[in-house]
Amino acid sequence: MATSRGEFSSRIGFILAAAGSAVGLGNIWGFPTQTASNGGAAFVLVYLVLAFCLAYPAFMAELLIGRYGQANAVTSLQKMSKNALQKNFAFIVGFGGIICAALILSFYGIIAGWMMSYSLEPILSVIGMADQAQWVIGQSFYANLLFTTAFMFSTIFIIRKGVENGIEKWSKRLMPLMICLLIGLTIYVMTLDGAMKGLGVYLNPDISRVLEPNLLVSALGQAFFSLSLGTSVMVIYGSYISKKENLVTLGAQVTLIDVSIAFLAGLLIIPAMYVAQAQGVAIFAADGSLISGPSMVFTVLPTLFDSMGSIGLFVAFAFFVLMSIAALTSSISMLEGPVSYAVERHNVERKKATTITGIVILLMSFVIISNLSFMLDFVASLATQYGQPIIAMLCCVFVGWIWNRNDILTEIKQGNNDVESSLFWKVWPWYTKFVCPLAIAMVFIHSL
Ligand code: PFF
To answer: What is the predicted pLDDT for the residue at 447?
Structure first.
């Protein structure tokens, strides 16, 4: 039997939950990695522009769809549809987003499992269990199964509790902790030799690179992944916001938090790499580019922590706990998409829907683990390079071309009576109708 719908109990609850979804491995790992492999500050500059000019308007489209529909992504989009054809289109877009969220969770859970294993390793080392410490970070088949399962069950545990007692309560606990850890670690790294050189690389843009096609595509992909777009997640989070809240401001605040944390993570990671270099660690690949991706997080940084002596164990622990928390507040949002669909459309009881959906996604992770080198990249690019931009673009098409204009304006006005004099009111409707779908399509076609 379906239970009554949940709702965020407070504004800050929504902000932390939506920012919790947005801020994840994409910010703390993905953004610095992309910055490192795309020439430093030029990438940062392009990312900031695209995040505010394209990702934020698309993010608002998804939040507004959800709050108008007061339901999961499929039902919300169907509420705006006027005929059978549009309803089918709504199903494809809404359900496509839900599948996309499930696919992302299936590989995200594996990487998050690695983060958990790396946070356990310093504890095992301190208590003298050196062999076990090596086993947990070995990323062997069984270690991967174990940590992915542990991570997925933590996600299931929170989502079973619902919106207010699960998502909101845990986001309120975990997000401040994560931000404190991030700031603390950044300040510490800044005091070490080599950090200032890294800071220069991070903050001085090479303007000649900003129009490089690869840089543009990577920056847009990163901005969409970071705001969790094209996955039904922001539609469902939008549906849990009260009609009394000013959505335009809330959306802007979440975008600002997301972008700031990515920027802060870059302030930690890029200087940390140059600190590692000052301590004799190789930070450039054979082709002269900065090491990025898994080798950056699992080789360069641990070598840096090792070289710090006993304090390094604490720093390593804090860093990987930070990564695990960031991953958890994102993974709960990914699971909420499919769960809310099962609860609202198929009348499945929430706890049962959560456990079953979580286990099905875990089985998908096991399939990936069985052929990790091929499947991880395959599923990640399928969901993030193709799925997310296409679905996000279709959401903008829905808002611009199918949703009744008066209904859109009424929805924007809810909780925001003065909006008619704002730039958002004047620009956003046509911007979402023409500019967003076209720009996303252009970048997408270019990436093919
Ligand atoms: N925004 C998350 C991150 O930056 O790590 C990733 C993410 C969360 C993607 C939720 C998609 C999603 F539905």
So the answer is: 66
Q: Which residues pair with 290 in a beta bridge?
A: 284
Q: How far apart are CA 391 and CA 399, in angstroms?
A: 12
**CA–CA separation, 11 and 180 (whole Å):** 21
Q: Is the Cβ atom of 104 under 6 angstroms away from ligand 1?
A: yes
Distance (Å, whole) CA 150 – CA 127: 22
pLDDT digits over 384-414, tens only?
Answer: 988 999 999 999 999 999 999 999 999 999 9
Residues of the chain with pLDDT under 70: 1-4, 447-448
Q: For ligand 1, pick from 151, 159, 226, 255 the residue to mutate: most ligand atoms within 8 Å of CB.
A: 226
Tell me how far the alpha carbon of residue 186 lies from the centroid of ligand 1, in angstroms: 23
Q: What is the pLDDT of residue 50?
A: 92
User: In angstroms, what is the span from residue 325 Cα to ligand 1's centroid?
Assistant: 13
Judged on CB neighbours under 10 Å (0-12, 13-18, 19+), 86 is middle
Place of tokens 């003298």: 128
251 burial type by CB count under 10 A (0-12 exposed, 13-18 middle, 19+ buried) = buried
CA-nearest of 78, 79, 143 to 116 is 143
**What pLDDT is stored for residue 3 in this prediction?**
47
pTM: 0.93
Neighbouring C-alpha atoms within 13 Å toward the C-beta of 448: 8
How far, in Å, CA of 65 to CA of 69, rounded?
6
Find the 399 Cα to ligand 1 centroid distance in Å.
Answer: 22
**Cα atoms in the 13 Å half-sphere on the side-chain side of 48:** 13
Element (H, E) at 365: helix 350-370
User: Which pLDDT score, from 0 to 100, does residue 1 have?
Assistant: 39
Distance (Å, whole) CA 447 – CA 254: 27
Give the mutation target among 100, 330, 341 for probing the ligand 1 site: most ligand atoms within 8 A of CB: 330
Residue closest by Cα to atom 12 of ligand 1: 228
Q: Is 33 in the pocket of ligand 1 (CB under 6 A)?
A: no
Beta carbon of 27 within 6 Å of any ligand 1 atom: yes
* Ligand 1 center to 105 CA (angstroms): 9
Q: Is the CB of 365 under 6 A from ligand 1?
A: no
Give the SS3 label for residue 123: helix
Burial of residue 263 (number of CB atoms within 10 Å: 0-12, 13-18, 19+): middle
Report phi then psi at 352, rounded to 5.
Answer: -65, -45
Ligand 1 site-directed mutation target among 34, 175, 225, 234, most atoms within 8 Å of CB: 225
SS3 label, residue 290: strand
